[in-house]
Structure formats: C-alpha cells, structure tokens
Amino acid sequence: MSEIIVVKIGTSSLTDPSTGNLALSTIAALIETLTHLRTSGHRVILVSSGAVGVGCARLGLRERPRSMALKQAVAAVGQGRLMRIYDDLFTSLQQPIAQVLLTRSDLMQRSRYLNAYNTFQELLRLGVIPVVNENDTVAIDELKFGDNDTLSARVASLLEADWLFLLTDVDRLYSADPRNNPDAQPINLVKQIDELAELQVETGDRGSQWGTGGMVTKIAAARIATAAGVRTVITEGRSPRNITKILQGEALGTHFEPQPQPNKARKRWIAHALVPVGQLYLDNGAVAAIAQAGKSLLAAGITEVKGEFHASDAVLLCDAIGREIARGIVNYSSAELQKIIGRQSAEIPTILGYVGAETVVHRDNLVLSS
Ligand SMILES: Nc1ncnc2c1ncn2[C@@H]1O[C@H](COP(=O)(O)OP(=O)(O)O)[C@@H](O)[C@H]1O
Ligand SMILES: N[C@@H](CCC(=O)OP(=O)(O)O)C(=O)O
Fold first, then answer.
1. Measured between alpha carbons, how far is 10 from 316 in angstroms, rounded to an integer?
2. Where along this sequence does the record place binding of ATP (predicted)?
3. What is the distance in A from the centroid of ligand 2 to the CA of 298?
4. Residues 236, 156, 134, CA angle at the centre, nearest 5°?
5. Which comes out higher in pLDDT, residue 163 or 195?
6. Mean pLDDT to the nearest integer, 242-257
7. Ligand 2 — pocket residues by CB below 6 A?
8. CA angle at residue 266 from 261 to 267, to 5 degrees?
C-alpha cells in the first residue's frame, strides 16, 4: 500500500552534541531508509532541522546564537551545507530530492496554502523526496513555526499523511525527562493527547543543547497531526531503520493514535469549496481554544463581526490583527452576532429572545487554515 510518510529529524540526532560535527552514520542510514521506502512505493517527505547547528559547526561557534540576525546568518550557512550533504548521499542512491523552505505565512493564506499543497503533490508525483525546513534566514518571529516539530505536523496535515515520525535523541516519550529522572517510565501508546495531562507527564520546556523545544513541541506536534488523522510516532533518530520496523508493526517508540476523521470530506468542502462572506475577529483565548485545543467558537471570544451574512453561511475566523486562522459555518446571522459578541452562552437566549445554538461555529463545522 502506498502511504504518505513524513519524517522529521532534529538537530540532536543529526549532529554530535559535543563537537557539532555531523552524525554521518545516522544520516547515511536515514537516507538509505527513506530511499528504500520511496522505491517501495511510498511517498516520503523529510523535514530536517540542523541549519543552525551545522552553520555553527562550519563557523566554529560553540553555542546556539541568541541574536536573531546571527541565527539567521548562521542558518544561511548551514542550510546550504546540509542540502549539499543530503543531495550527495541521496544522489548516490539515484534518489532525487528538492529543498522546500517554508514560513508560517506560506500555510496561513488560503492561496499560498493551496500553492504549497500543489507543489508538494507535484514533487511526490515526480518521485522526489522533498527536504523541508523553516526558512530561517528570512522568517521573522511573528511568522515563524518556531520549531520543526510543529512545521512537520503542519506539513503532515497539509498532505493528509498516514504517518509522522519525530526522530529525536531519546527512544520514546517518558513520564519525565529521562536525562534528569532515572525512574521515568516509558510511554508506548497515547490514545488521546489529553491522557498525558492525566498521567502528569513532565516535558520540560527545552530540549538538548542544540534542540528547540524538547518534548513540549513534539507533543504539540502530535496533537496537531493526530487531530488531522495522522498517526504520529516519537522514536530514536540514531536508528532510522526503526522506521521500517515500525511500519511493519514492531512496537518501538511512542505511538499517538490518529483521531477519527468522520468529517473529513465535509471539512475539505468547508475549507476548499465554500466562499466566506464575513469575518469574525477573535480574542487570544478563542484563537488558542480553536487552534490548539480543537474547541468550538463561542460568542464570548468574538470581538468584532464584519460583513453581512445569514446563519449557515461560511465565514473567516481571524486573530486580533486580522490573520485568518480558520474557516467555518456560522450558526447565527451577522445581525444576531452583533448583539451577542463578547457575551456568555447562557445570556444569549435572554438577549435574542429565543434559544439558539450554544456555539457560534461548532467544531465539526470549523477547519483550521494552516
Ligand atoms: N518526558 C520526556 N520524555 C522524553 N524526553 C524528554 C521528556 N521531557 C524532556 N525531554 C527531553 O527532550 C529532548 C529532545 O528534544 P530536543 O532536544 O528538542 O530534540 P530534537 O533536536 O530532536 O528536536 C530529550 O533529549 C530529553 O532530554
Ligand atoms: N530550523 C532550525 C531548526 C529548529 C528546530 O526545531 O530544531 P530541532 O529541535 O533540532 O528540531 C534549523 O534548521 O536549525
């Protein structure tokens, strides 16, 4: 069966943390594995970190730069070097690759999102393995994914991938950071991300010396990907051949089960076919509830309504500065919404004089834009 497989490898697996030199045997094994998957009929995308780490090693810098300008300059040095190595090694196996550098804005605007989607599809159709990274050299803070775990999850969602592998320097997720907690318990299967809060899993707030985000960003990535129906696995970068074993059913790493997608076709229709006729501006709490927690939109989180529309029309949901974050079908007209924005759901029947829907846009009728 041909599957779409996104593999993300972190700096901590690509380089030797003490010297900053490339971990050549890991990279070679990764390239052999991905090429083998491709020639077996799968569509493969590699999301590779390492531009900053490799750039630092090339320039003799011994720690990750703090200033934005230096980081961007170093990434420009490292990205070229990284691609040179990938291209040499993949070419020795006759596997064509492509460099795809993205910023968050590329997946935020509908037209650019579709453009990115079409380019990926064309590359995959040509049998190419796209090698993706954040466009660190030009991305400004507000328009960054910020870490490649999130970037890989967004790419996996964009392509409706079957698998997302997050390769890192630990073999799986533990109940606490195994570096500092020798008693930390391994976690093999996560059926619902919210289980982790119940299990009180500690993720720290940063990773290894060269990594970004540690487990926090991997779990955030697993949330995005599994919500889009992508099975996500955290496993060890040092053994890329484990990817093949996992695909064959071996229980390695931590598996996050994909959430059922009963509304997939409907959501695709909302995202692609409907023309939005109004705009709802949301406060930060509502943006987080929708984008991170997968919740419905309530009147309390809306700050402004633009355009004239009826109930059941499609609208854009925007953040405070007007960036599109989602699209959805509204349960109220613009005239009704003008009366109830910012108000608690319990107040709505009194304000409108009748009992309407509890949500303004139900999550089944809401599709994130990036
Ligand atoms: N609960 C946990 N389970 C496993 N690893 C954890 C946990 N909490 C924090 N970590 C740390 O996360 C690190 C991996 O993150 P990071 O360095 O950002 O890797 P990468 O470069 O692969 O993205 C591990 O080395 C580990 O120390
Ligand atoms: N885009 C950056 C990587 C950022 C990042 O998420 O790094 P990592 O935690 O090592 O996956 C780079 O190429 O250095």
1. 34
2. 8, 168-169, 212-218
3. 35
4. 80
5. 163
6. 97
7. 10-12, 49-53, 75, 133-134, 136, 147-148, 207, 211-213
8. 70
Q: Given pLDDT bands bounded at 50, 70 and 90, which one contains residue 135? A: very high
ipTM of the complex: 0.97
For residue 36, give both structure tokens.
Answer: 């083998």
Q: Are residues 354 and 311 in contact, defined by beta-carbon separation less than 8 angstroms?
A: no
With beta carbons less than 8 A apart as the criterion, state whether 49 and 151 touch: no
Structural domains of the chain, ranges and CATH numbers in brackets: 4-268 (3.40.1160.10), 277-368 (2.30.130.10)
Provide the phi-psi class of 226: left if phi over 0, else alpha when psi is between -120 and 50, else beta.
alpha
Substitution candidate for ligand 1 out of 206, 208, 236 with most atoms within 8 A of CB: 208
Residue 267: CB atoms within 10 A of its CB come to 19
This prediction's pTM: 0.76
Residue 312's pLDDT is what? 87
Q: Which atom of ligand 2 is nearest to the CA of 14?
A: 10
